[in-house]
Design goal:
With 753 residues, this protein is of the alpha/beta class. The protein is built from 25 helices and 30 strands. It binds alpha-methylisocitric acid and iron/sulfur cluster (SF4). The site of alpha-methylisocitric acid (MIC) has 14 residues, from helix 3.
């Protein structure tokens, strides 16, 4: 079921009539996003028009993709769903668990050894249930999906927040938690609130040092990490058509950093060229046949303000290269202003490491353009001052760029090629000396740069840029170097300038690969055994969460009032904890250890209300659990920003937290909480956040009449005998309320199976 051209034919056979039907009910010209969404309505939803930003809609996605760190939990849930095969083509990709230390070969073989149990588990579950399995070393999920599975006009969900990468090929591709993936693999519809639409009109054409990455770095600066929440971003215009398919992928990928549900570009000649270049001319031919349905209506693009909720215009001819950071991906600096910002803010100007690649930026175009700079460094006798690493996105890209000599060029510049995996991007980086927590700077072509993410050091200032800018700055070893205007001193003492990078969108000799690393599932998996050792510390079969007790919740403790940014990295840290992604009990020991306690400004130190002593968050919560007392977590804006990891929702659920009450949520995290039977609530009046005190005892009222659109009440009883009642809004619809009552969405599926 992995490469399913038949499936694509079926989808394409229905697209024209479904879009026509949608046009009738919507009653006006359609954006591309609406076309694909309406073409993927589930049976129950067909024939209706939906209100953006409010209606919950059931969709029928065509594919599911999972990466190893999230697939474990997704598949542990799927194993309980009572199905013998997945209902839609699905794949698993082993990319997150490979630690970067020495270089590709050694690191990969070490990872295979260390993670054997998990890889064996994923390989056997995949084999059993008809899921395509991409072995460790095959590449990073989003790059492999773009090269093999993404198709224009399709709809995919993936258990990773950067799933939108496939929007570069005109697919609606959305990051979700494992429980959502489990539903779709079990043949159930997938629910999403009909998104708002942000249109980005691109005019002009990129040139010189500017790359596709700079478009999204600029957009992130405009919209901020929350600005895309609840919205799909649709790119169009003559500038859009000028970008390579992989460049479009980069833009859509990093759209996750503005909280967008996904991002998308229409089908065009560049998409067709990429499909053909990656061995899929058959799909290009099919897409050409329905091309007018794979882009927005011309009326929409002529008057975007009438059809989108918000419109942004960017002229690519004027766009400067950008550097974003540190610590947040939306702090955007045009290169001409960056050096001054570094000086004014006292960020370390000396650049320790430049890292290129990742799922965001590891196309043939990216690598060839970066290599053109590396070649100049060699030719112009410049010795790279920073360490420099290259992470190819897939074995196909790695093999091809090795064949074409680019890896040798990097080698001459002193670069180290890492495994085709996430590596440093997700904290899988044995960076020597990081434990000393020294203040330092790194720059990457990745997408996220939250504190501690890459190397665990809170004082590492991580910046994000295009591979070209990363390479130039690594050669200079200096963050204040502007390659557009400045010169460097070479080993002979001469002043030299780096010329503009040059590269190729697609390899002239075509892509090549010896072993892509794919393993097809058994045709009949019924006899395949999936083994999970009861004594394993990496994998643990799941027990059902208890159903709601049927009454209001009273006498809850405040576990933590989190202050400021609280991303999924703060709630369930990655790096060393990735090894427990299949073991709920063990990974729960990282719950909220990165969140800042508003009362003492410390991380992982909260007051245990039973003893009065301060302790670690997970241990404190375990004490409440042992005493049979529930608790709540209070948080700030955009709580749960970042990753799709549902562990950030399952851990509190498992340890007995009952509700998360925040100023606002990131989309995936809010859904993950609901799926696991938690209460995800928001302050009707955000200023009420300030009323919550450290020793509060809490009641949640209104649960017996819990209904869509009806707020709940949370009463905070303070230690001085006074109390405050906070109105808590929620976005649960009736079906989601049933998840809460049943204890989790999965409990309901199990009951039906
Ligand atoms: C990430 O980029 O943060 C990750 C690691 O890919 C996550 C998934 C995970 O936590 O496993 C994501 O983005 O969803
Ligand atoms: Fe992997 Fe980083 Fe991409 Fe996430 S953003 S999939 S960790 S390379």
């Amino acid at each position: 079921m992995a490469f399913d051209i038949e499936m694509i034919k079926e989808v394409y056979a229905q697209i024209p009539s479904r879009i026509e039907a949608a046009r009738k009910v919507v009653g006006k010209p359609l954006t591309l996003t609406e076309k694909i969404l309406y073409a993927h309505l589930s049976e129950g939803a067909a024939g209706q028009a939906f209100k953006r930003g409010t209606s919950y809609v059931d969709f029928q996605p065509d594919r599911v993709a999972m990466q190893d760190a999230t697939a474990q939990m997704a598949l542990l849930q799927f194993m309980q769903a009572g199905r013998s095969q997945v209902a839609v083509p699905s794949t698993v990709h082993c990319d997150h668990l490979i630690q970067a230390e020495i270089g590709a070969d050694k690191d990969l073989s070490k990872a295979k050894d260390k993670n054997k149990e998990v890889y064996d588990f994923l390989a056997s579950v995949s084999n059993k249930y008809g899921i395509g399995f991409w072995k460790p070393g095959a590449g990073i999920i989003h790059q492999v999906v773009l090269e093999n599975y993404a198709f224009p006009g399709g709809m995919m969900i993936g258990t990773d927040s950067h799933t939108p990468n496939a929007g570069g090929l005109g697919m609606i591709a959305i990051g979700v938690g494992g429980a959502d993936a489990c539903d779709v693999m079990a043949g159930l519809p997938w629910e999403l609130k009909f998104p708002k639409l942000i249109g980005v009109k691109l005019t002009g054409k990129l040139s010189g040092w500017t790359a596709a990455k700079d478009v999204i770095l600029k957009v992130a600066g405009i919209l901020t990490v929350k600005g895309g929440t609840g919205a799909i971003v649709e790119y169009f215009g003559e500038g859009a058509r000028s970008l390579s398919a992989t460049g479009k992928g980069t833009i859509c990928n990093m759209g996750a950093e503005i909280g967008a549900t996904t991002s998308i570009f229409g089908y065009d000649e560049k998409s067709a060229a990429y499909l053909s270049g990656t061995g899929r001319s058959d799909i290009a031919a099919l897409a050409n046949g329905i091309a007018e349905h794979l882009t927005g209506d011309s009326e929409v693009y002529a008057n975007p303000e009438q059809y989108f909720d918000q419109v942004i215009e960017i002229n690519l001819s004027e766009l400067e290269p950008h550097v974003n950071g540190p610590f947040t991906p939306d702090l955007a600096w045009p290169i001409s202003k960056f050096a001054a910002a570094v000086r004014e803010n006292g960020w370390p100007a000396k650049l320790d490491v430049g890292l290129i690649g990742s799922c965001t930026n590891s196309s043939y175009e990216d690598i060839s353009r970066a290599a053109s700079l590396a070649q100049q460094a060699v030719d112009k006798k410049l010795v790279a001052k920073s360490e420099y690493t290259i992470t190819p996105g897939s074995e196909q890209v790695r093999f091809t760029v090795a064949r074409d000599g680019f890896l040798d060029t990097f080698d001459k510049m002193g670069g180290v090629v890492l495994a085709n995996a996430c590596g440093p991007c997700i904290g899988q980086w044995a960076r020597h000396g990081a434990e000393k927590q020294e203040k330092n700077s790194i720059i990457t072509s990745f997408n996220r740069n939250f504190a501690k993410r890459a190397d665990g050091n809170p004082n590492t200032h991580a910046f994000v840029a295009s591979p070209e800018i990363v390479t130039a700055l690594a050669i200079a070893g200096d963050l204040t170097f502007n390659p557009l205007t400045d010169t460097l001193t070479n080993s002979e003492g001469n002043q030299v300038r780096l010329d503009e990078p040059r590269g190729l969108e697609l390899p002239t000799k075509g892509f090549a690969v010896e072993d892509a690393g794919y393993q097809a599932p058994a045709a009949d998996g019924s006899t395949v055994q999936v083994l999970v050792s009861p004594t394993s510390d990496r994998l643990q079969l799941l027990d059902s969460f208890a159903a709601w007790e049927g009454v209001d919740l009273t006498g809850l403790k405040l576990l933590i009032k989190a202050k400021g940014k609280c991303t999924t990295d703060h709630i369930s840290m990655a790096g060393p904890w990735l090894k427990y992604r299949g073991h709920l009990d063990n990974i729960s020991n990282n719950m909220l250890i990165g969140a800042v306690n508003a009362f003492n400004e410390a991380t992982n130190s909260v007051k245990n209300q039973l003893t009065g002593a301060y302790g670690e968050v997970p241990a404190t919560q375990r004490a409440y659990k042992a005493a049979g007392i529930g608790s709540i977590v209070v948080g700030d804006e955009n709580y749960g920003e970042g990753s799709s990891r549902e562990h950030a929702a399952m851990e509190p659920r498992f340890l007995g937290v009952r509700a998360i009450l925040v100023k606002s949520f990131a989309r995936i995290h809010e859904t993950n909480l609901k799926k696991q039977g938690m209460l995800a609530l928001t302050f009707a009046n955000p200023a009420d956040y300030d009323l919550i005190q450290e020793n509060d005892v809490i009641d949640i009222k209104g649960l017996t009449t819990f209904a869509p659109g009806k707020a709940l009440e949370v009463v905070f009883h303070h230690a001085d005998g006074t109390s405050h009642t906070v109105v808590a809004n929620h976005t649960y619809n009736q079906g989601q309320i049933e998840w809460f009552k049943a204890g989790s969405a999965l409990n309901l599926i199990k009951a039906k199976a």
